[in-house]
């Protein structure tokens, strides 16, 4: 994203905000202890919501076939940079068929976090022998303080003006409800997350500058200095609400061949200052939707090898189409994977 700052939208190449920004331990890196009383781990870890996406997304958080696997809105409580925390404590314990988990992110931006504090609590369990199968259910509540979302701003269509690397700050909270049903070769999946974006409770207000998780210094009103800016007021005119739904099925045709189908839906109600939404895509705060459907066949032809082929069709409408040069996409993908 930093490499595309100062470049008009129509001339940019691919980029994405992410919790993986080239850190020394770009995925996870933690240590801990485990006992009959639970497991306690410390340092860089997945959020509880990312763990839930891995467990309850029919596509297994695939980058090619799952929006909630690729985009990070769902696993990051609204902002993808918070799918992983560099300094955190996580505790998990199983009590019979039930489970409890909690996560606390301590430290702030200076410790390579994309928030100044985060708290998550998870309650769940498994119900065996229900309708001939097993039902798994989990609920996760989250709060992320001064969350960071890095984006490019400052250009509207026809998008010929340079864009500014902008850090938007907010206090985010969410409730995620997920479930799956397994019965022999069939697995059914479903999930919902409600996300609220509110003005940041910044303890350093007014925040003038900080180093983001990618190592770039961003500062307020610095478009003429280093082509960056900080937006602390994106939600001052009203909180932004966001809804994420998904469902799908995975069927084992044989022991080595799975077919998977999934559907994903985002819904963003209108938020903030009143605007003319006759052309809803002209304003990012208008009501908007996103829909995606994907299908995959996965064949494990050897112990550590599998081949897959599939496609995903996606479409944005209304306020969620703001800034898109194309509003629908189809991406056929084939691949070969070796598991270590």
For the structure shown, list the relevant keywords:
340 residues, mainly beta, two-stranded antiparallel ribbon, 17 strands, 4% helix
Explain how this protein is built.
The chain is mainly β. The chain contains two helices and 17 strands. The protein has helices spanning 48-56, 67-70, and strands at 29-35, 38-46, 84-85, 88-95, 98-105, 117-130, 133-153, 164-183, 186-198, 209-211, 217-219, 228-231, 240-254, 257-268, 288-302, 305-318, 328-338. The protein has a 15-stranded mixed β-sheet that branches. β10 (209-211) and β11 form a beta hairpin. The protein is globular and about 60 Å long. The mean pLDDT is 93.
- Approximately how much beta-strand content do the residues carry? over 45%
- What fraction, in percent, of the residue positions are helical? under 10%
Instruction: Output the number of helix runs.
Output: 2
Q: What is the radius of gyration?
A: 21 Å
Distance between the termini: 31 Å
Let me know the largest β-sheet.
Answer: 15 strands, mixed
Summarize the structure.
The chain has helices at residues 48-56, 67-70; strands at 29-35, 38-46, 84-85, 88-95, 98-105, 117-130, 133-153, 164-183, 186-198, 209-211, 217-219, 228-231, 240-254, 257-268, 288-302, 305-318, 328-338.
List the helices and strands and how they pair.
Blueprint: E1 29-35, E2 38-46, H1 48-56, H2 67-70, E3 84-85, E4 88-95, E5 98-105, E6 117-130, E7 133-153, E8 164-183, E9 186-198, E10 209-211, E11 217-219, E12 228-231, E13 240-254, E14 257-268, E15 288-302, E16 305-318, E17 328-338
Parallel strand pairs: 8-12
Antiparallel strand pairs: 1-2, 2-3, 2-4, 4-5, 5-6, 6-7, 7-8, 8-9, 9-13, 10-11, 13-14, 14-15, 15-16, 16-17
């Amino acid at each position: 994203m930093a490499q595309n700052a100062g470049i008009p939208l129509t001339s940019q190449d691919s980029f994405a905000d992410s919790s993986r920004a080239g850190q020394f331990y770009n995925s996870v890196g933690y240590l801990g202890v485990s006992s009959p009383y639970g497991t306690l781990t410390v340092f860089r870890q997945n959020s509880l919501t990312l763990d839930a996406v891995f467990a309850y997304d029919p596509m297994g958080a695939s980058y090619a076939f799952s929006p909630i696997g690729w985009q990070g809105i769902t696993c990051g409580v609204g902002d993808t940079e918070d799918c992983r925390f560099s300094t955190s404590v996580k505790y998990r314990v199983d009590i019979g068929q039930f489970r409890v988990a909690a996560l606390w992110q301590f430290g702030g931006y200076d410790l390579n976090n994309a928030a100044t504090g985060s708290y998550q609590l998870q309650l769940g369990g498994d119900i065996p022998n229900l309708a001939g199968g097993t039902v798994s259910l989990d609920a996760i509540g989250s709060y992320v303080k001064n969350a960071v979302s890095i984006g490019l701003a400052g250009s509207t269509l026809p998008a010929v003006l340079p864009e500014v690397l902008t850090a938007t700050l907010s206090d985010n909270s969410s409730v995620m409800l997920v479930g799956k049903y397994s019965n022999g070769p069939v697995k059914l999946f479903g999930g919902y997350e409600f996300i609220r974006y509110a003005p940041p409770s910044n303890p350093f207000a007014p925040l003038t500058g900080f180093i983001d998780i990618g190592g770039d210094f961003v500062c307020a009103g610095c478009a003429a200095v280093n082509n960056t800016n900080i937006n602390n007021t994106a939600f001052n005119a009203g909180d932004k609400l966001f809804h994420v739904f998904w469902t799908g099925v995975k069927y084992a045709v044989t022991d080595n061949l799975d077919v998977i189908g999934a559907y994903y839906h985002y819904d963003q109600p209108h938020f903030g200052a009143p605007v003319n939404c006759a052309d809803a895509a002209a304003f990012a705060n208008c009501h908007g939707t996103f829909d995606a459907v994907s299908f995959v066949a996965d064949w494990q032809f050897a112990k550590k090898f599998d081949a897959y082929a599939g496609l995903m069709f996606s479409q944005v409408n209304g306020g969620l189409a703001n800034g898109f040069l194309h509003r629908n996409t189809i991406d056929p993908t084939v691949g070969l994977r070796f598991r270590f």
